[in-house]
Design brief:
By secondary structure, this protein is an all-alpha fold. A 5-stranded mixed β-sheet has the order 1-2-3-5-4, with helices on both faces. A hairpin with a 3-residue loop joins β4 and β5 (about 465-470). α32 (about 680-690) runs antiparallel to α33. It is globular and about 110 Å long.
């Protein structure tokens, strides 16, 4: 028996029947996406193949099928499939853009380019059919590939698409990827973070965030990377970024293991074989290196990205010559491949090949005004044109036009001294002049050094024969001894040249810090309470893994300890095995031997070497102030020096004011037979100074200096004791303590100033000059530096030095220029009377009633009159 339904109900039921398959299809597509995002590519492919058979009308299935095949490295199979799908689904732009990647992966550049034109044509002729925001994103991506202005595409296509549909995944991906490609890392991070609000489990967006932090915050990068891999352990972009990180950290075995995992997913991934080639290069496996590169080019033999990637990573390892060679290969494949062109520009600039380097940077900027690195370099070039250049046979020194006349000659003299010392010590001849650029603006230093204005705490960087450094003007409020910095960086020039840049970071930095200490005991780093604690608590990084300590540092203190430990290893090697052994290690590295192999060959097996170094470091730590107890009294020690910043000599009030505030910490009497505690002594002194109980502070500070004389700096007992003496008017004692502080520290500006003042008051001109010179090594831009230098040199009979410093002082806009002109006139008097007269006239123009200047000018006139027999000058000026 049958029942006839009313027509309206029939149509309603028919609609349900038609809708059910759609619901199932959508669910299947969602499952495919979930499988792909979890890294279950084979399962996703099987589901896509089923969908292609059962739901041929759905054009999403071919996309999932091809994406899986491409991810699995089945490139020819993907090409066969895509040709059929292009005929079947003629209006699908996303499929066509994916097809372009497929054809490229198979080396079919002509067909790939044809598809771009086809997408552009479809978008132009049938724009009414492509109004969906996500489809508009596809058109924007094609426009970028066709060479349209990236900023215009971003502003006119991607951003409007995201606003029109905040759930459009493709819009976030396109914006983030474009920003990464153009080195706009702030925008990339912002876009990927916004994407994760909508798609919190999408590994692509976690990877994108990691890539945005790669150049600036390695800790955040690793955090985002681990998140991506937690959602998809086989996420190839994330695994590739992990390989890069491991190569940076010189964890080559770990990088090889990660590559093995990548190749288990996609055995033909060009990027993976590129990384294999890099690893082989770094390990000196020349034959394998080239085989890996050839494998990377197996399906697309003119893929510019292969050599670009190899070259970029080699350049990041300071192999700029090799890196530049690979970028030239990439550009030979594709002259329009801008990533290779801007990387080559940076490589050449770091090699000192500046004419071509700047030209390439300008070409990239002309082609793409959104590329942040190119824009930064072109802008910097304009600034560098205004620099002043000082040269001699060995150096090309570039500085700002304001700074060069002030201390440029001092810098050139320091560099020349470093070259004489270090090239002789390491037995190397430098064939080309070293280029040194000092930047008064940290942003300019950042761009010249890293391509970006950010500066992650570096004072200087050496690339080989090119050195970049911050000048004293670039670090206001954070004094640093620029002479120590230049000595450190020039030592890099020597060791990098000696090894042809084939040395791990820890050894390069370790030698430079060690050589700082050899040149001047107050330079470089020395054992401190923090370093002592780290060593004795076993927080020493194994020698074979030291380069990773720089990369994995969680704080500035961790990074500084990496520098110190590296220098301690070098000190140990030189003391135990001799400088010649270290030099042989460097020569082995030049020949391509791995670091650990060279060390074992020239010193001892690595395990034994590690044991010996650990014992050496522990002995050093234990010998630090052995008369002190180092047990920390709870956590309070963390704030021990909270008041010391206000206790420096120049900040303490002169009146000896005592308060009645009780001082529980001031009682420092130790139980019989026990060592005084470093932290309790320091706390007692700090509290007493804060309460202006100067006499109570003295015993603690004197005991600290007696038991720990090597601890110097602005937070040391020397600085605090000098403050106490000054407050009590004990100038002789203050000078004595400050002299010890100045001898042991290389950047205590206030101590140098105060000492120069005290010495000048006592007419101790040798002491005045010594401390003025110390001041000049930190901040030669301070007028007081040149005033004290000139005064002291004048009194010591060093007329030329006095003249140079008085003339420099005039360039710093001193408050009393007339007095300076008069001093110069006195110095020139009898040697160059014309110049003396010029300075007197300048002095009188500024101070018409300057009697001494009048008198000396009259004397000069009288001298001239006697010389030519003319009438004597008037007796006085009215």
């Amino acid at each position: 028996m049958s029942l006839k339904l009313p027509s309206a109900i029939s149509f309603f039921c028919l609609g349900l029947l038609l809708f059910i398959p759609a619901v199932r299809a959508e669910t299947a597509l969602e499952k495919a996406e979930a499988l792909f995002q979890r890294g279950e590519y084979e399962a996703c492919l099987r589901l896509a193949e089923t969908g292609l058979k059962e739901e041929r009308y759905r054009d999403e299935w071919p996309i999932w099928s091809v994406r899986c095949l491409m991810t699995l490295g089945r490139y020819p199979e993907a090409e066969t499939g895509i040709k059929d799908y292009l005929r079947r689904y003629r209006g699908n732009l996303r499929l066509r853009l994916l097809a372009r990647d497929v054809f490229l992966a198979n080396g079919n550049r002509e067909e790939a380019d044809r598809l771009l034109e086809e997408i552009n044509s479809l978008g132009s002729s049938r724009s009414w059919a492509y109004r969906d925001p996500c489809v508009r994103v596809v058109l924007g991506e094609a426009a970028l590939l066709l060479g349209l202005d990236p900023k215009a595409v971003l502003d006119q296509v991607f951003d409007p698409a995201k606003k029109a549909d905040p759930g459009c995944r493709d819009a976030y991906a396109a914006i983030g990827q474009l920003a990464l490609e153009k080195h706009d890392y702030d925008l990339a991070a912002k876009s990927f973070r916004a994407a994760l609000e909508h798609f919190p489990k999408d590994p692509d967006f976690h990877y994108g965030l990691a890539a945005a932090f790669d150049a600036s915050d390695r800790e955040e990068m690793l955090k985002a990377l681990q998140k991506a891999l937690s959602f998809n352990p086989q996420h190839l972009p994330s695994l590739q970024l992990m390989v890069e990180h491991q190569i940076d950290a010189e964890q080559y075995d770990e990088a090889a293991a990660t590559l093995k995992k990548i190749l288990s997913v996609n055995p033909w991934l060009p990027e993976a074989w590129s990384y294999r080639s890099i690893l082989d290069h770094l390990r000196g496996n020349v034959a394998e290196e080239e085989k890996d590169r050839e494998t990377a080019l197996k399906y697309w033999d003119s893929n510019p990205r292969v050599d670009f990637l190899i070259g970029k990573k080699l350049s990041q390892k300071y192999r700029f010559q090799e890196g530049a060679a690979h970028q030239r290969k990439a550009l030979a494949f594709d002259q329009k491949f801008l990533p290779a062109k801007i990387q080559l520009a940076e490589d050449l600039l770091r090699l000192g090949e500046e004419t071509e380097g700047w030209k390439l940077a300008q070409e990239v900027h002309d082609s793409d005004n959104y590329d942040v690195t190119a824009f930064n370099l072109v802008t910097l070039h304009d600034s560098l044109d205004k620099f002043q250049t000082l040269t001699n046979a060995d150096f090309v020194l570039r500085m700002s036009a304001m700074e060069a006349p002030i201390y440029g000659s001092d810098a050139l003299e320091l560099l020349t001294r470093a070259k004489t010392n270090l090239t002789a010590k390491y037995g190397i001849a430098l064939k080309e002049p070293t280029i040194v650029e000092m930047f008064a603006d940290q942003k300019d230093f950042g761009v010249r050094t890293f391509g970006m204005p950010d500066n992650p705490g570096f004072l200087g960087v050496c690339f080989g024969r090119v050195v970049t450094a911050n000048s004293p003007a670039a670090t206001p409020g954070h004094p640093a001894n620029w002479q120590a910095v230049l000595w450190h960086e020039f030592c890099h020039v020597v060791t990098l040249t000696m090894t042809e840049n084939k040395m791990p970071r820890w050894l390069s930095e370790g030698i430079s810090v060690y050589e700082e200490r050899q040149a001047n005991p107050s330079w470089g780093q020395s054992m401190s309470p923090d370093y002592r604690e780290r060593i004795l608590e076993g927080k020493v990084t194994p020698v074979g893994e030291l380069s990773a300590a720089f990369l994995n540092a969680h704080s500035g203190a961790d990074l500084q300890f990496a520098y110190f430990e590296s220098s301690l290893v070098v000190e140990f090697l030189v003391q135990r095995f001799g400088l010649d052994a270290l030099k042989k290690v460097l020569l082995d590295l030049k020949q391509g031997e791995p670091m650990n192999t060279a060390l074992a060959k020239r010193t001892a097996p690595l395990d034994e070497l590690q044991k010996q170094f650990t014992a050496f470091a522990r002995e050093k730590a234990e010998k630090l102030a052995p008369g002190l107890d180092w047990a920390k009294p709870g956590e309070k020690h963390g704030n021990l020096f909270k008041s010391i910043a206000n206790s420096l000599p120049f900040k303490v009030p002169a009146p000896d004011v005592q308060t009645n505030k009780p001082n529980q910490q001031a009682k420092i009497a130790e139980e019989s037979g026990k060592k005084p505690n470093f932290y309790k002594l320091s706390q007692a002194a700090a509290d007493a100074i804060e309460q202006k109980k100067w006499d109570e502070a003295k015993p603690s500070l004197q005991k600290l200096i007696e038991l720990f004389p090597g601890y110097a700096g602005p937070d040391s007992a020397y600085a605090m004791l000098a403050a106490v003496h000054r407050a009590k008017g004990e100038l002789a004692e203050e000078k004595k303590v400050l002299s010890e502080l100045a001898r042991r520290s290389d950047d205590v500006v206030e101590a140098y100033l105060r000492l120069a003042e005290l010495c000048a008051a006592e007419k101790d001109w040798a002491g005045t000059l010594e401390n003025a010179e110390r001041l000049a090594a930190v901040n030669p831009l301070l007028p007081a530096c040149h005033r004290y230098r000139a005064m002291a040199a004048d009194h010591l009979g060093q007329a030329e030095k006095a003249i140079v410093n008085y003339e420099t002082l005039l360039k710093l806009d001193p408050p009393d220029p007339a007095e300076i002109h008069f001093r110069l006139a006195e110095l020139f008097h009898g040697k160059d009377d014309n110049r003396a007269k010029r300075h007197l006239i300048d002095a009188l123009e500024m101070a018409p009633r300057f009697r001494k200047a009048h008198a000396l000018l009259l004397e000069l006139h009288a001298k001239e009159a006697r010389a030519d027999g003319s009438a004597a000058a008037p007796a006085a000026f009215e």
